[in-house]
Backbone:
């Protein structure tokens, strides 16, 4: 069963960037993992895949590093610091809002 979960996460990540993280969190929570651990584990799953994508985009000349680096470090530090401080209910609400926003945005394209 975990193989199929991994395949689904990989396919979503390939088609939608890091969209596999959304599925990863939901599946990890369904497997009984607490919300914070599910989010942290999802990041651990998606990070290597995102780094590989970053390298491929950069090697093909599609990623201007000078424009993207100013966003990377603050986002990483803020995410790591806030994950411990945000109440679980708020984290779930924000996560649901991001999923809803992403879905609406995809439909409007």
Residues:
């Amino acid at each position: 069963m975990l193989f199929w979960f991994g395949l689904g996460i990989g396919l979503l990540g390939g088609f939608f960037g890091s969209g596999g993280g959304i599925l990863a969190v939901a599946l990890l929570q369904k497997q009984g993992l607490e919300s914070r651990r599910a989010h942290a584990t999802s990041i651990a799953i998606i990070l290597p895949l995102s780094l590989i994508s970053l390298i491929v985009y950069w090697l093909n000349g599609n990623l201007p590093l000078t424009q993207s680096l100013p966003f990377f470090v603050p986002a990483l530090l803020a995410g790591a610091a806030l994950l411990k401080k945000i109440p679980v209910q708020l984290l779930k609400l924000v996560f649901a809002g991001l999923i809803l926003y992403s879905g609406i945005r995809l439909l409007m394209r």
User: Anything to note?
Assistant: The chain has a mean pLDDT of 81. The two ends are 33 Å apart (CA to CA). Helices lie at 2-16, 20-30, 35-59, 65-85, 88-107.
